[in-house]
Design goal:
Blueprint (H helix, E strand, L loop, with lengths): L6 H11 L7 H7 L9 H22 L9 H13 L4 H20 L18 H4 L7 H11 L5 H13 L3 H5 L12 E4 L11 E4 L3 H17 L12 H18 L9 H16 L4 H12 L8 H8 L2
Antiparallel strand pairs: 1-2
């Protein structure tokens, strides 16, 4: 399977390669294949479509293009996103069934090993699965960035600072273009070429002085070097830098004894701090949520109470 196949193509290949279509439920019970078989074409299409949505989320949020590389932590993040959006328990249970079936098929097809952690935990309805991940505290974020600054590759530190100060997704920070940063570094004009989700353009005002300084510094260096992007020469380099950044972040959080090291956590820290900024200046919660959604580049469907609560509550 090529890396560039779409989530829908990968999902369809998996369900076909795993021999998911069954002739009869009775025969499947007899031969022990009942756990991964599907007996109606409509149900088959629904499973393929829903798992494709899971793969699309993982690709967008973690820059993972191959279904074989999906891990339990990515699936947990997907379920957390469903809870943030306020989706019903029945919808969440539907996705649990789909992902559990896909997990069995992936192992049957040789895409995953039997020893690999199941995509859905044994207790899918438990609090660990439904718990919204907490953002780094301001102190944790500051400590992480300080440790990253000690690395020889200063891109790690700068990417983390821009994530924390401007709320960019990791792929947006890594793909950030020279032209996206204004003269003073206090405004980012992001477009599809900067890796925005679904190509949605947005403006992000930067209040943090350190973020302004590092973004303008790297913008000027890239411009002088003839690069169009701050951290990579071309888009083909984005995956390698993403993996290296994730490894550095994991190493630092382990050193600091911080029990979460996802690249999205710095973005969530930004969200918490920016919400606090708006509310302290007299914005209503509804207006603060609307402003935050614009800053983060969320679609209107994400502007819900669950999002506000998950970013404000420690």
């Amino acid at each position: 399977m090529g890396k560039k196949k779409s989530p829908l193509q990968q999902s369809l290949i998996l369900f076909k390669k795993g021999d998911a279509i069954g002739e009869s439920r009775q025969l499947a019970k007899q031969d022990g294949s009942i756990s991964w078989k599907i007996f109606h074409s409509t149900t088959f299409q629904e499973y393929v479509g829903n798992f494709a949505r899971v793969l699309k989320y993982v690709r967008t949020e973690f820059n993972i293009e191959n279904a074989k590389d999906v891990k339990q932590e990515h699936i947990i993040a997907f379920f957390n996103s469903l809870n943030e959006r306020g989706l019903s328990q029945s919808t969440i249970q539907k996705y649990q069934a789909v992902i559990s079936k896909a997990d069995l098929l992936a192992k049957k097809a040789g895409w995953r090993q039997e020893k690999d952690l199941s995509w859905v935990k044994d207790e899918p309805k438990g609090p660990k699965l439904r718990e919204n991940p907490k953002p780094y505290t301001s102190e944790e974020a500051t400590a992480i960035i300080a440790e990253l600054k000690k690395f020889r590759d200063q891109r790690f530190y700068t990417i983390a600072q821009i994530q924390r100060g401007a709320g960019l997704r990791v792929i947006e920070a890594i793909c950030l273009r020279v032209v996206a940063i204004n003269q003073n570094g206090d405004l980012l004009n992001l477009e599809a070429a900067d890796g925005t989700k679904k190509g949605r353009p947005r403006e992000v005002f930067v209040f943090d002085q350190q973020t302004k300084e590092v973004s303008t510094k790297w913008r000027n260096v890239a411009k002088t070097s003839g690069r169009k992007r701050l951290f990579i020469n071309s888009l083909k380099d984005k995956n390698a830098l993403t993996r290296a950044y994730q490894r550095a972040l994991k190493k630092v959080t382990e050193k600091l004894n911080i029990d979460h090291s996802k690249t999205h956590d710095l973005r969530r820290t930004f969200a918490k701090e920016r919400l606090t900024y708006y509310i302290e200046r007299g914005y209503s919660k509804e207006h603060a949520l609307s402003k935050l959604s614009e800053d983060l580049g969320h679609g209107r469907s994400r502007m819900e109470r669950g999002l506000l609560a998950s970013y404000l509550n420690d």
